[in-house]
């Protein structure tokens, strides 16, 4: 009989209770016990969600992040946090994640990085070659005991752990003796280092395996039936032979624990086809395979997602699974998508399989990346559309229904009970209702997928420079200025109809005028309107484009207490009317300096929303590009001579498998070019990306052919620039000169030094001066101080260049 389970659930709370509790705790408004109480309530909620499942998963809860918790569990705490007197593990964790202040100065937090190709960020553990690991299992025991209290002694529990190989692969290895913040610069270029699985990290695997073994013993003592060892790196097609061998040795050792729970090796986010042979050799009790994937790559073997029918079935090729353990966990429901599954198609496939194996059924990955439940979604999402959706709670219900239907069948005949039949029929009818609605609304226009090239950059640059008359090393910002509580209040009041459109517009205009004045006072060269009308760079545009539906409570954790509310793409994407013209036009009317038009690019719009599954994501990206192209043309016609099209998720959207990189590079850059197709040569197109490991994507970034690219580099002391040499075909570059994620104010000298470093790599005509990213999460006093110093530094170095020219 198949058994049901999930790899994990959301934890931020149906009404973001944990987010609110965390922020109150950090502000000193509630105490530790009050925060703990909310944490316990979130764990109990997760147990209630799992009531109908056969195996109940714990260990997926975290107050901040599970990679961080894993580092704390094994005491992988960098030296700089050890002298802070933080004996409480919860507070120590917050210090690692958020930094700390100390009498000797600020202690820099650990870095954050994207969790594979999701919009979730994990905390990057910092290890060094002398690391000795020890077990601190309080939190593990706590999560198990909470479950036991709620469920009694008989429910089979599974404890979810990030596996040893993935933990090391994603950690960053620092030089021994590093003093913390400074050590980063010596080691790597921002994101680039750890994600590649540093060879040195592998040397720590034997030591780490020993503590994992100890932990497995402890889990057995606690009466846990299963341990879920998550090794999502096993879906990559880029693991070196050394890593593959290391993984094998490690898992052999884990198998030797005399008393251990059963082990479920979990792979997810794509099908693990390249590593199936290794996986088959690993001595584990069960393997979880993601049979859905992320939809951004073009998988060519079993596990491919046929992109034809909505909520499509999996493509399960039995022959590929030979040699895997008898117990297989099949990730058959899309754990990252919001569409109901085609249960009929799934049943047909699974029926052939059910009698051959001891089956476990699960969503493809943890449901962390989905909203909790559709129960509160009556209002924003059109009713017929709602019928076709499934969030976390509804995915689990689908799973239970699948199991019931499969249990009813046998080899000879397949006859689910009346009740199950009825539930299946209802599910089918819901999907059909949604599909009909989509068809009625006229979905399915296939967009053109090519973009004409602009004139050569040299010609454009000449015209742009003549038109804009900017000084050498022009200064600018990335777009947003602080999102103050007052702004949020006004937006909310407008949304709820508590203030009129006129009053709302007046307030936003006031904020724009103020933001322009601030920038003029600082002396910046290219100004922005500050994005005060935007709750989020994606949600805002989704709200103004047809084809996207907004949810009311569909919050998904992005990092720590921060959440995003992705929109749902359900129909062809079109622009019913201009979106930004009024705000940008107003901003430009306040100043003589150029104001950049500010748009969110097509890849980012789709990547940070929930896409359709009935047509390829690529088509949705091109539809968005066509809609944005209209906005670009209208902005240009209105007199905007600089237009920035942010592609913050350009790197995140790169498929996990190397095999899929060339295809992605080609269409993603073409989609970007589509946005600016037909603009005049004298109109300057900017783009911005916040994640800096472009080493595997440089050609695609160059093929976007943007006149100016602003990027995140300051954390790595400009090391990234070494890879962005001229041959890469990039034009003008604005390597961020300071880190906006930190409240620290960079000094003029520090900033000037970074600008001089950048000049070592780029001629002055190609260099722009700007922060790393938007300023929306900072306070005005921080922003003012930092930008003043940045402007001074720019002017200082500008003067050096000019006097250098005179003497030369
Ligand atoms: N989509 C997306 N992904 C991204 C980024 C991004 O900017 N957008 N940036 C990177 C980093 N990620 C980030 C993700 C979230 C936040 C963030 O600050 N989120 C806010 C929510 C943003 C938002 O939509 N706020 C709404 C308010 C939503 C809300 O809480 N409303 C409440 C109460 C509002 C209030 O009084 O404050 C209500 O309606 O009841 C607004 O500004 O208008 C949060 O968690 O606090 C920041 C960075 C990578 N991924
Ligand atoms: C996450 S990238 C942010 C880009 C956007 N224009 C901003 O400045 O906020
Ligand atoms: Zn950014």
Automatic annotation (TrEMBL):
Binding-site residues for L-homocysteine, renumbered to this chain: 478-480, 646
EC category name: transferase
Named cofactor requirement(s): Zn(2+)
Single Gene Ontology MF annotation: 5-methyltetrahydropteroyltriglutamate-homocysteine S-methyltransferase activity
Enzyme Commission code(s) on record: 2.1.1.14
Residues at which L-methionine binds: 478-480, 531, 646
GO BP, one annotated term: methionine biosynthetic process
CDD domains, per the entry: CIMS_C_terminal_like
Recorded metabolic or biological pathway in which this protein acts: Amino-acid biosynthesis; L-methionine biosynthesis via de novo pathway; L-methionine from L-homocysteine (MetE route): step 1/1
Cofactor annotation remark: Binds 2 Zn(2+) ions per subunit.
InterPro entries registered for this protein in UniProt: Cbl-indep_Met_Synth_N (IPR013215), Cobalamin-indep_Met_synthase (IPR006276), Met_Synth_C/arc (IPR002629), UROD/MetE-like_sf (IPR038071)
Amino-acid biosynthesis is among the record's keywords: yes
Active site, renumbered: 741
Keyword terms: Amino-acid biosynthesis, Metal-binding, Methionine biosynthesis, Methyltransferase, Transferase, Zinc
Residues involved in 5-methyltetrahydropteroyltri-L-glutamate binding: 19, 119, 562-563, 608
Domain (Cobalamin-independent methionine synthase MetE N-terminal) ranges: 4-353
Stretches assigned to the Cobalamin-independent methionine synthase MetE C-terminal/archaeal domain: 473-795
Binding site for Zn(2+): 688, 690, 712, 773
Function as written in the Swiss-Prot or TrEMBL entry: Catalyzes the transfer of a methyl group from 5-methyltetrahydrofolate to homocysteine resulting in methionine formation.
Family membership noted in the UniProt record: Belongs to the vitamin-B12 independent methionine synthase family.
Protein name: 5-methyltetrahydropteroyltriglutamate--homocysteine S-methyltransferase
